[in-house]
Amino acid sequence: MPRISDTADVATTATVGEGSAVWHLAQIREGASIGSHCIIGRGAYIGSGVRLGDNCKVQNFALVYEPAAIADGVFIGPGVILTNDRFPRAVTPDSTLKSAEDWKPVGVTIHEGASIGARAVCVAPVSIGHWAMVAAGAVVTRDVPDFALVAGNPARRVGWVGRTGVRLVEDDDRSEFLRCPVTGALYRVLDANTLEEVESR
Fold this sequence. Notes:
Elements: E1 3-4, E2 9-10, E3 15-16, E4 21-22, E5 27-28, E6 33-34, E7 39-40, E8 45-46, E9 51-52, E10 57-58, E11 63-64, E12 69-70, E13 75-76, E14 81-82, E15 108-110, E16 115-116, E17 121-122, E18 126-128, E19 133-134, E20 139-140, E21 148-151, E22 156-160, E23 169-171, E24 174-179, E25 186-191, E26 194-199
Parallel strand pairs: 1-4, 2-5, 3-6, 4-7, 5-8, 7-10, 8-11, 9-12, 10-13, 11-14, 12-15, 13-16, 14-17, 15-18, 16-19, 17-20, 19-21
Antiparallel strand pairs: 21-22, 23-24, 24-25, 25-26
């Protein structure tokens, strides 16, 4: 059974998987799906129809707007925002208040194992690659490759990380190969935006 705080607001049509925990003042909207063994922190917001995989962590006060799609093992840090409006306006061109019919939401996709640092903003529509790392405070406006480490505003690749999240280092002076200093796993740089895992450990 999931553990849901008495002060959390979980819609009756939302699903929360086995072993997951939803903490104080979190809100999970209609039709959202939370996988098993997830943690939804204090004051976090999960929008209507959002999908989270298994073993995810959404930290305090993160805002995950629909239609975000989040794979297994994703970390979303405190205060992160995943937006859903490419051209945000409160009103239409004739200055009347916009309704749900006046815009089409676009989402952020986060692939397996990726991490989004505290107070980062992902401006939809963007995709965060497998095992990528978005630095705290970054503003992501374009897709992030698998294993990339991105930082800044706008976010740019500043390095590569492995599955541990630790920055990869050159392997024995072979510039096309990188190695994880924690596990020893080997990676190959194919081009400026592509890294492949050669040997996992």
